[in-house]
Amino acid sequence: MLWVGQFGIAGGQALADTPWVGIFEEEVRGSDASDLFLLVEPATPGSAEFFAELKQAVGTIFHASKASLTGGLLRALQAAHENLREWNRRSMRDHRVAAGVSCVAVRGQEAYLAQVAPAGGVFYRDGQAEPIQPSLPDAVEPLGMYDEFWPEFSHFEMKTGDRLLLLTTALARALPPDEPVASLALAADEALPALYRHARSLPDCGAVLVAAVPNHEDTKPQSTIT
Questions:
Q1: C-alpha to C-alpha distance for 200 and 202, rounded to whole angstroms
Q2: Domains identified in the chain, total number
Q3: Contact indicator for 112, 13 with CB cutoff of 8 Å
Q4: Distance of CA 53 to the CA centre of its chain
Q5: d(CA 143, CA 58)
Q6: Is residue 163 part of a domain?
Q7: Which residue in 124, 122, 76, 130 sits closest to 103, CA to CA?
Q8: Using CA of residue 38, residue 44, residue 50, residue 53, what is the dihedral sign?
Q9: I need a surface site. Which of 16, 39, 60, 212 has the fewest CB within 10 A?
Q10: Among candidates 189, 182, 125, 186, which has minimal Cα distance to 157?
Q11: Domain membership of residue 110 as a residue range
Q12: CATH number, domain at 16?
């Protein structure tokens, strides 16, 4: 099964609810239930003020239009992009807003990731950690900044022991080079506390962890560090 945990720090405090993390679970559970988890970070000063509305729009549209997980992710991010673009068209240049986003939709053992920079992540399997960052031309610019955008998609068929970590760029820079492997090699509910030790000195950051664990493992489906 897939276990998901998260933490966020805002204004130097670890909080259950921060601008950076969004959790949108399927209300009606079933074999085809899918959940959405977001990590958002500002690309221009003042953008974080819009994140509550942005996250809610992405989560609502995803669950309303997900004939496929990638299609739902794309439509949700396109709507968020257009909302930010509309604000920027009516604003002075110094007041324009933009955001980097990592969205992971999970169903069963599958995880579909959509990213628009600034965004970062790590995929861990069998002792190896692979960085994940947007590199396509239309995905390296943030939501709301330019007319055209296209998220970069990644698909992961998760097997027991795999880890998919999303983290803000400030947290990624704060980690020692060997830390992602060391932390992600731990049990699912021990990995985030290990990462948090490097995050707690930062004023603003966040992380979302998707971990494939044995079905019998006694682990809460959500974990928030405070």
A1: 5
A2: 1
A3: no
A4: 16
A5: 12
A6: yes
A7: 76
A8: negative
A9: 16
A10: 125
A11: 2-212
A12: 3.60.40.10
**Residue 223: per-residue pLDDT:** 46
pLDDT category at 225 given cuts 50, 70, 90 is: very low
Is the pLDDT at 31 greater than 90? The verdict is no
DSSP 2: E
- In the DSSP assignment, the letter for residue 19 is T
Residue 147 · residue 180 · CB < 8 Å? no
Please state, rounded to an integer, the average pLDDT across all residues of the chain: 90
Between residues 31 and 171, the one the model is more confident about:
171
Q: Is residue 196 part of a domain?
A: yes
In what side-by-side order are the strands of the sheet with 99-107? Answer: 21-24, 35-42, 99-107, 110-116, 152-157
Closest CA to 120 of 107, 130, 106: 130
Q: How far apart are CA 3 and CA 212, in angstroms?
A: 6
Q: How far apart are CA 15 and CA 119, in angstroms?
A: 21
Can you give the pLDDT at residue 218?
A: 47
Q: For residue 149, what pLDDT is reported?
A: 86
| Residue 222, in any domain of the structure | no
